[in-house]
Amino acid sequence: MDTLSQVSRISTKGCPLLLSDPGEPNHDEHGRLHPFSDVEYLASLPPPVLKELSKNVAQALAAAKQARKKPVESGEESVLQVHGKRAAQSSANKSSMDTLRCEHPGCTTTFRRNKDRRRHFRCKHKPSTRTFICPVVDCPSGSGHKYPRSEKLRDHLDAKKLTLIDWSCVLPGCSETSRGRAGLIDHLGQHDYNTRVSNKTLLAEYGFASYMLNGGYLLATFICSVPGCPFGTHDKDAINEHLSIHHDGPFCPCPITGCQRVFQDYKSAVMHLAREHDYDTRESFKKEIYSQCLSAENAIFLCPICYKEVKQASIYTVRDHCRKHGHEELLRDSEALMKAWTFSLGSITHSSEYLRITGDMIVPYIILPERKRGELRTKAGFEQAVARIRAGIELSKNHDLS
Q1: Are 41 and 34 in contact (CB under 8 A)?
Q2: CA 289, 294, 296, 301 torsion: positive or negative?
Q3: Does this model's pTM top 0.70?
Q4: Are residues 173 and 294 in the same domain?
């Protein structure tokens, strides 16, 4: 059999391994052709045969590739289907875990948080559910409309458009109306002491909690009877002295001896004390401040770096604010920080030895965590901490320059 005939048989059978029948001289003991990787064997073949062989090998490779591709594709499809089913199942399980259904029969409402579900059940299905009636006369949202939760009512009443509309008294049994929120606060002060104290929870729910903090204005034993005057006190002599001053409107003087400032409302007087009188002064006049139903504890920290006021200031709120500034800023303005801290919160003492914090010592006092700060028991320890902070700043600068 010549070589071309062998090649034709390759094409016919589609198998590149059989060029002739077994038993012919060019086959091995198993009846297979010599390997095509044998370069000498391939070199002995004429060019037409090599050309035909290369064509058939190319076709065979393409067919093999296609044959391999089909099961891979089907396999990939099945894998994708499996993953899709698993993902869907996982999503369904997660959804079922995340979704909480109302337990009331017939209610199909669902929630993400158990807190929301409990509140919904309390507001919608509990027989003893309270409702809060809007006290605004001719309210744009409708007269006498109700809210299931007090916080929703307070959000509604905070709207500026309601400040000049007539409000009805929120205390049970009273049908009086007053001009705006300020007028209602003034009217509430004219109710007797026992009525105000017995309804302090209701007053807080309607948004007047700030006027009752630390026994504030609305919980004062005696309140000025002059309309619009927010003066209240627990001292009978103080109210008699106040009423002896001729005034026909707001008159809330500062209780600090020697301060001649007078304010038109309770909140302004409280803010004045926090902004204009330091901690030691407020402490020394604590009795007078409380007797006028103002708050001596209310403090405001004015940051000397960004000039932002931290209201309701405490050690923790001031420290959290100061930590927002960089260490270099804190060191640069450490003296001013110390003065602002002392004005607002008083002097700083540290550890069982009552070590007084001064100057740069306030920086590690502010930025170090409690455990690290507790390890500093002497002034020298604070000075070493400041030195490490300065070294860290310099190292950071040098790193940025490089």
Answers
A1: yes
A2: negative
A3: no
A4: yes
